[in-house]
Amino acid sequence: MNEPALNEESVRDALRNVIDPEIQYNILDLGLIYEVNVLEDKSVGIQMTLTSPACPFGPMIIHDVRESCLSVGAEDVQIDLVWQPPWSPERMTEEAKLDLGFDL
């Protein structure tokens, strides 16, 4: 069986399976992923944030991000947790805003 292609699209698709347990929605559509970089050596760099610095599920979400990247063929995953720009609901996709009842 062929391995899935490791590229930005496959990583982003995998990240849709990572759910923020507090909001019950995937972190990609919540706007928590700021940047995805896939290098030729099969390493992946993720720049991400959490909904707040005090998020009790932060370690679990970061673990799930790493595992999702590994599941699509990454051999090394570097996660940079950043707080600038700060997360806000404006970073969410229109679909997520509708699903979660945010005014558009």
Q: What is the arithmetic mean of pLDDT? A: 94
CATH topology: GMP Synthetase, Chain A, domain 3
CATH superfamily caption: Fe-S cluster assembly (FSCA)
Characterize the largest beta sheet: strand count, sense, and whether it forms a barrel: 3 strands, mixed
The residue fraction in helices comes out at 25-40%
Between the first and last Cα atoms, what is the distance in angstroms? 44 Å
| Global outline | globular
State the name of the first-level CATH class.
Answer: Alpha Beta
Oligomer: single chain
Helix segment count? 3
What does this structure look like?
This protein is 27% helix and 21% strand. The protein has 104 residues and is of the alpha+beta class. The chain has one domain: Fe-S cluster assembly (FSCA) (GMP Synthetase, Chain A, domain 3). The strands form two sheets. A three-stranded mixed β-sheet has the order 3-4-5, covered by helices on one side. A two-stranded antiparallel ribbon has the order 1-2. A hairpin with a 4-residue loop joins strand 1 and strand 2 (25-26). The protein is globular and about 40 Å long. It starts with 7 loop residues before the first helix and ends in a 5-residue tail after the last helix. The mean pLDDT is 94.
List the helices and strands and how they pair.
Layout: H1 8-15, E1 19-20, E2 25-26, E3 33-38, E4 43-48, H2 58-71, E5 76-81, H3 94-99
Parallel strand pairs: 4-5
Antiparallel strand pairs: 1-2, 3-4
